[in-house]
Design goal:
- The complex is a heterodimer of chains A (about 140) and B (about 260).
- Chain A is α+β, with helices and mostly antiparallel strands and about 140 residues long.
- Helix content of chain A is about 40%, strand content about 35%.
- Chain A is built from three helices and six strands, in the order H-E-E-E-E-E-H-E-H.
- In chain A, strands 1, 2, 3, 4 and 5 form a five-stranded antiparallel beta sheet that branches.
- In chain A, a hairpin with a 2-residue loop joins strand 4 and strand 5.
- The longest helix of chain A has 21 residues.
- Chain A is elongated and about 55 Å long.
- The two termini of chain A are about 30 Å apart.
- With about 260 residues, chain B is α+β, with helices and mostly antiparallel strands.
- Chain B is built from five helices and eleven strands.
- In chain B, the strands form two sheets. Chain B has an eight-stranded antiparallel beta sheet, covered by helices on one side.
- In chain B, strand 5 and strand 6 form a beta hairpin.
- Classes of the chains: A alpha+beta (about 140), B alpha+beta (about 260).
- The interface between A and B is large, with 48 and 53 residues.
- Strand 6 of chain A pairs parallel with strand 6 of chain B, so a sheet runs across the interface.
Chain lengths: ~140, ~260
Amino acid sequence: MTRTSVAAALSALTLAVPTTNAIAATTASTAKSKVVVTTRRFLGSSVEADRWGPLQVAITVRKTTTTVGKKVTVKRRIVAVSVPVYPNHTDRSIFINQQALPYLKQEVLKAQSANVQLISGATDTSYAFVQSLQAAIVQARKA
Amino acid sequence: MATAIADPGARRVEQIMGMPILVDVRDDGVDDRALDAVFEWFRAVDATFSTYKPESEVSRLARGELRVGDASPYVQDVLARCEELREETDGYFDAYAGGSLDPSGLVKGWSVDHAAAMLGLAGFADFAVNAGGDVRLVGRARPASSWRVGIQHPLVRDRIAAVVEGDYLAVATSGAYARGNHVLDPHTRRPPTGILSVTITGPDLATADAYATAAFAMGSDRAPAWTATLPSGYEAMTILAADRVLTTSGFPRPEW
């Protein structure tokens, strides 16, 4: 029960105060068009990976805002994924993380080419990963 | 912060029933109270159906302290539907698969179906609900674009194996591990073999979820053939070991 409410509190916190570190912002202008590129980091909610402990995913999103006259076009792209908080408190979960996390990190960039709003699927550690990622995507879309 | 180009509407995530539940409403002028009501519903479902709460109706039923006839209408509704689905799936969907009553496999999708009905009655036309990977879509994500759901890759867990697109659609996936417990074949009480995941789409999430669980429990020998016999409106994508993917002809993929 306590574990659930802590996770809920963390979830609410990240929703209310998204971690948005402005890493870089560049602006380029010509006579009629303007391009603004910002790069920000979004934390997903901390999700309990069942018995293995908490897991949290952060994504770095590059947002390109192009203004031509009155027309504004926005493109967002995930440029990095990290797992700042991951379950690591038993031998078994260390093993699982060694096996799973390299995959989890290196492959999400490819998934980005599929522009989706929601994820269907459910598993242990990766289940938490997907749910935390879902929350981070929600944050990035709001910004 | 630039907000003019953010997605319209409102979205909220809360951790209930041991999973994050996302409600994403794209209509303009979303009243916070409408979202409050939906999450109150999910908390009430948890209090009634949880197998982890000793005082829940389901726990009292499992201990024999409550008779089905005396349970709330919602519980009777769910148990009746569990029994229908058990018969329809040759016993592969079974609320007693683990030995004692656990209707969680139906309750998740069923509660999302109810939440979608609540949002519809509140006057919303474009929204999505995702409860632990079980998704219900209504309307559109944007005026010019349908909702798109990524189906988690069963081996490379952060990748998407396929995309499903739809305006009014439920999407449920059953995989190698379900919420910390293996999905077992109720007949052998062993995990199925040769199968990595099953995704079912259709009009009703509770039913789609039960079909996905049943097909996964069948294993690679029976599942593909069985998914070809689903009722009208239901479609399946079965991912087998050795990277074989079998989809029914109407599976709503915009791309592969």
